[in-house]
Design brief:
Length: about 700
């Protein structure tokens, strides 16, 4: 049995990570366009190809444009390849020993369909509740339902439960009691999956996809490539969300990912898809993905946010700034530049009307552009259930886009509501649950003035957290109850009290999700105190005792080069770096810079695209431009089905999942209210399914 080690021919692999364990895995052989390659057993074809340095999976039949992975979530079809003679989505298809994989260049010839096929009987399975999605909300709802003896089937299209949790290497916000605050998403996924496995009333179908909720109130499901029907009293839609896209020149080049795709490659599959990444979007998704890139040893050359301020948590933003990531607010992406894949990105400053300011263009070298400009709820199943007059609930991002901590708690509430609907929970739902749910989904609040405390004796934490967000694990772990939030709530600014009592245990440093706490110790030397700084990129940017590091303040501004006295590992996988600091800057130190400003500088001469905004691609599947769509909108076409018939926009394999919002945006630009627009008629299947799945050979 061959075992892959770090010296194998798989070139784009993570060999070390500060949070994730890198294990040896069995390797297998497969071929790509006739060339023999190695892969890890069970990984997706797309990950195996990128691990071997292959980013272009084929060329579009219409204009020969290069095609590569984009969403890694089965929502688009850009990563389609031919595997053993059949078209498959490479992001959802495991590579197999001796599998023959080919690119979809043009329209490849497929195997002839046998004539001796007939429809087979379809099994129908009864259950009280069907949960669509095994992410944080679906798992939390399932656990709550099982507590009340409700029989359920939980369906998820991945091999592993947890949804986006399995991609999250950072510690979560919220409270410890309600949503595991201070615990990493990858660990929360295991905790929730283990809890659910303790209940025999729960059937879990992984590697399975819900296809449609039919008018006879049966739900079609592709279960491990077998088609079954489920008859359920109640449906809970916890299917999550899909990522939004932007329209700009070069927006379909290989190397442009949704944030989820990037995190899937890096944190789940341990593939290194990039060396230099640029992020578009300053919400929590983009900020967190940038941090994940740094943990994987990838240089983050910049982040652009079109608004004057980033919309994510300030502690997430500050964490990137402290590590040395340039942040360009009031900027937008102008173009992705390259031929076969991304080679650079051009951005420009925008005015108060979000129009680009000529002369402010900058081009930054990168091989990847990560698009993190928002999410759309996957709400098709709820609408289908409502049309079939079924009882249906939603939870998590499928109901409202919010943080995973909120999704978990809302999942609990949905589970209890369903148990009550079934008559298995007789009491009223606790009123404080709804209150907590509202708090947990609160957007970033007020930013308070940054005040450096005056004390200069003993030891104590410096709290670099100045924005009101739903988070309080620091007050929960302090053994002496020395950190307080006003009214002991979840929203507010934590404050250090009773300064003479702190022992310097450092528990608050290692649990803080924002790495926004340092510890200053004056006990040995009041003029040169010891400062302890949390650090989580140690495997890719190791720091040794005796070397000098660049310490920075809250916003990432350079303070000094200081000698490292001690490096301490902790059980939380957060490393503590101790430096001896001049008293004048000790309490200002908030982090350690790891990125060299020189390698992040824009090119001296920006690359300006020669195409117009009408030349850019809106429909990725059918390569329909904004100009083609705009032409027919100006002729009065307000029915998107008619627009599809004329232009083919939305007619491709993804079923308009990636282009519908972009088309609606063009309608708005042309002065239409969305109430005037007739939306696309959705296909009767959520994803493409081979006919052979519904038939069998005689």
């Amino acid at each position: 049995m061959p075992i892959c080690n770090h010296n194998s021919r798989l070139m784009n692999r993570l060999t070390s990570h500060p949070i994730l364990e890198i294990k040896e895995r069995k390797t297998i052989s497969f071929s790509w366009n006739g060339k023999s390659l190695l892969a890890y057993e069970g990984e997706m074809i797309s990950s195996a190809l990128i691990a071997n340095g292959i980013y272009t999976f084929g060329y579009h039949y219409k204009d020969k444009s290069p095609q590569g992975i984009f969403c890694a979530n089965s929502q688009c079809a850009q990563c389609t390849v031919i595997a053993n003679g059949l078209p498959v989505k490479s992001c959802m298809t495991p590579v197999q020993e001796n599998m023959v994989v080919q690119s979809c260049d043009g329209l490849p010839k497929l195997p002839e369909v046998k004539n001796n096929l007939k429809f087979k009987p379809v099994e129908t399975i009864d259950t009280e509740v069907l949960i669509i999605g095994g992410g944080p909300s679906g798992l939390s709802a399932a656990i709550e339902l099982c507590k009340h003896n409700v029989s359920l089937i939980l369906v998820d299209d991945r091999v592993e439960l947890g949804g986006k949790l399995v991609l999250q290497t950072h510690k979560f916000f919220g409270s410890i009691e309600d949503c595991f605050a201070g615990t990493r998403g990858i660990d929360i996924a295991k905790i929730l999956a283990k809890k659910l496995s303790d209940y025999p009333s729960a059937k879990v179908w992984t590697n399975s996809t819900v296809l449609f909720v039919f008018s006879d109130q049966k739900i079609g499901i592709l279960r491990n490539n077998e088609y079954v029907l489920v008859k359920s009293e109640i449906i809970l839609n916890a299917a999550g969300a899909r990522e939004k896209m932007l329209v700009f020149p070069g927006n379909t080049l290989p190397g442009i990912y949704g944030a989820g795709a990037f995190q899937t490659l890096v944190n789940r599959d341990l593939v290194l898809p990039s060396r230099r990444i640029f992020i578009v979007g300053g919400g929590n998704v983009g900020l967190i993905a940038g941090y994940h890139a740094l943990q994987a040893g990838i240089t983050v050359v910049g982040l652009a946010e079109v608004m004057p301020q980033c919309g994510g948590y300030k502690v997430h933003l500050d964490k990137l700034k402290r590590l040395g990531v340039p942040v360009y607010t009031s900027h937008t992406v102008i173009s992705a530049n390259g031929k076969e894949r991304v080679e650079s990105v051009t951005i420009a400053k925008v005015n108060e009307h979000f129009n680009c300011i000529h002369g402010t263009e900058k081009t930054v070298k990168c091989d990847t552009i990560l698009i993190a400009v928002g999410l759309d709820s996957i709400n098709e199943f709820r609408k289908e259930a409502e049309e079939a007059n079924m009882k249906v609930y939603s939870a998590g991002d499928a109901e409202e886009i919010a943080e995973a901590s909120s999704a978990m708690f809302n999942g609990k509430i949905a589970g209890l509501k369903i148990a009550k609907e079934l008559g298995k929970y007789k009491e009223d739902i606790p009123g404080e649950w709804s209150q907590k749910a509202e708090i947990l989904k609160s957007p970033p609040g007020e930013v308070h003035p940054y005040v450096i405390p005056e004390w200069e004796t003993g030891v104590g934490p410096i709290l670099h957290c100045i924005q009101e967000i739903p988070c309080n694990p620091c007050i929960s772990v302090c053994p002496l109850n020395l950190i307080k939030i006003e009214n002991d709530g979840l929203l507010g600014i934590p404050k250090f009290v009773r300064k003479d009592k702190c022992t310097g245990c450092g528990k608050c440093l290692t649990i803080c999700p924002g790495l926004a706490i340092t510890l200053v110790d004056y006990r040995k030397d009041k003029e040169s105190p010891i400062v302890s700084v949390p650090y989580e990129v140690q495997k890719v940017h190791p720091i040794k005792v005796g070397e000098k590091v660049s310490v920075v303040d809250l916003e990432g501004n350079f303070l000094d080069r200081l000698k490292v006295l001690r490096v301490r590992d902790t059980k939380t996988r957060t490393q503590i770096i101790q430096v001896k600091s001049p008293k004048i800057i000790a309490k200002k130190i908030a982090g350690i810079r790891i990125q060299d400003e020189e390698v992040l500088r824009p090119l001296s001469k920006p690359i300006i695209p020669k195409v117009t905004k009408d030349d850019v691609i809106v429909c990725r599947c059918e390569r329909v431009t904004a100009g083609e769509i705009r032409k027919w909108i100006r002729k009065g076409v307000t029915d998107m089905n008619q627009l599809k018939q004329i232009t083919r926009a939305g007619m491709g394999a993804c079923g308009s999942k990636t282009c519908e919002n972009l088309i609606l945006k063009i309608y708005k630009e042309e002065g239409y209210s969305l109430k005037e627009i007739m939306r696309n008629t959705k296909r009767p299947l959520f994803i493409e399914v081979p006919f052979g799945t519904f038939a069998k050979t005689k």
